[in-house]
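This is your field. Have a critical look at both lines of this record:
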Amino acid sequence: MTVLTRPRPKLHGSPRHGRGFWLIAAVYLVALAFSTVPTPLYPLYQRADGFSALTVTVVFAVYAIGVVVSLLLAGPVSDWTGRRRVLQAALGLEILAGVVFLTGTALSGLIVARFLTGLGVGLLTATATAYLLELHTAHRPEAARTRFEVVSSAANLGGLGAGTLVAGALAQFVASPLRTPYVVFLILLALSVVAVAAAPETVTAPAVRPKYRPQGVRIAGPRRTVVVATASAFAAFAVFGLFTSLAPSFVAGALHHPSRLLAGVVVFVVFGAGAVGQSVSARFPIGLAAQAAGLITLATGISTTSLTIFLIGGAIAGAGAGILFKSAVGTIAATAPAHQRGESLAGLFLIAYLGLVGPVLGLGLAGHFVAATTSLLWFTGLLLALLGTVLTVDRWGTN
């Protein structure tokens, strides 16, 4: 006798979590976009206050230091205080930074504003990533994590690229190029605060609050997996750091293209390619090969002072970096236990942002003694060596 059984119905989560997923994705994009608004404006700041390319590097490093400090001090906090509270604090810091940017062009104000921006981004990145994963899971309990991986990574890189493009366009075509971009983004950040308030919380506060401790570099998972993921994130952010700090000055100086819009487009191309790469693949070998090929092409563009080849190399390297970063985030999010997810992602972002600041500071110092083209060629060579090391650990390392 055949027993007929009904197929098991698919589980569907709350529509409120689905709406919250897209709200937080938009907040993530806006907050990261704000962090790159000064990038195409650095040549204007240099002319207004008379500081050098090395000073631009220091200003950029202050931002990255702010990110690292924030991750160290508050990385795991959202795991027990809630995602919304931490995101609102992060947005508050970015709004304060926007107000400081509007007060003037003096170097001291720029440094303070960049440090505040870094603190906000450090609070936001790991928290928003963990939040998106939890909202995705609550909305689609049986679905794969593909939507989360694509959207979270695209919001991150897409936001970084969009900030430079919008700021470059506004600086090129509207009055007050060192004011208008910040006014626009202050409005968007205020709307983001409202969006966070409308999203559902995903963390239940523990009965006994854990004892506060600063975030170390603690990432749960097998050792080799963690090493490959963190080194990949470091290498990816080193490329992004180059294009959000010194690339606009290099394009305006060595390549003789001073357009503010072009400066924004150059950075947007790299981050846009990264976002597109993430939507196409999350495979570590493809990302590694693409970033290596892009760096070789980039070095050719630097050597020949060709803007076209420089852009092509940046796009290929950006696509590879995007894939590597997506692979790293997906790996850590999948291997870390739920109660350590925020902490582990914070550790990953901490190492990634060290990749953002370390190589760029080295470039700035080297550029003080050798030609910009020489220091950039050194940069590409060292990154290629790092990618080779990551491949070796992935293929022949032990857990």
Q: What stands out?
A: Residues 107-139 form the longest helix (33 residues). Residues 299 and 377 are 6 Å apart (CA to CA). DSSP finds 15 helices and no strands in the chain.
